[in-house]
Amino acid sequence: MKKIVFLLSFITLSVLVASAQREFKINEGDTTFIMKRYVFMLLDAGPTPVDSATEVGLQQGHLNHLNKLAEEGKLIVAGPFEGGGNHKGLLIFDVETVEEALKLEADDPKVEAGRLQMNAFYWWGAKGTILK
User: Fold this and answer.
1) How many domains does the chain have?
2) Which among 22, 33, 102, 113 would be 20 to 30 A from 55, CA to CA?
């Protein structure tokens, strides 16, 4: 717990200093962490209702779009929420700017159809983190 509190405190201070760059190093004892700036995006429910047949087609297009971004190395994490209410899913992009991520996701068929809305901001994570 002490390591996590130290790491979070150091990250907060370092983010202020390193905001112009996408990576910085944190040394803790004999361990070096490389922190990297990603773009975290919440996908929220959009205002446009559609019938179930249209929704099926939009969902397939949505998955195809996300797979394409992942194959290009621009999307590194994606997934839906369970019981998230208005929040439908999250995306983490490995791109330079929030604007670039918004532009990439604007081509998603569910976003184009008004079924999903985007909310994106910067997120710092340890480079090379693997979800298990």
Assistant:
1) 1
2) 102
Domain range spanning residue 84? 2-126
105 exposure class (CB count in 10 Å sphere: 0-12, 13-18, 19+): buried
Which residue type is seen at 65?
Answer: H
Indicate the Cα dihedral angle 102, 103, 106, 107, nearest 10°.
-140
CA pair distance 72, 43, nearest whole angstrom: 20
Residue 103 lies in a domain: yes
pLDDT in tens, 35-68: 999 999 999 999 999 999 999 999 999 999 999 9
pTM over 0.90: no
* CATH number of residue 11's parent domain: 3.30.70.1060
Q: What percent of the chain has pLDDT over 70?
A: 85
Distance CA 93, CA 100 (A): 9
Residue with tokens 């996701």: 105
End-to-end CA separation in angstroms for the chain: 20
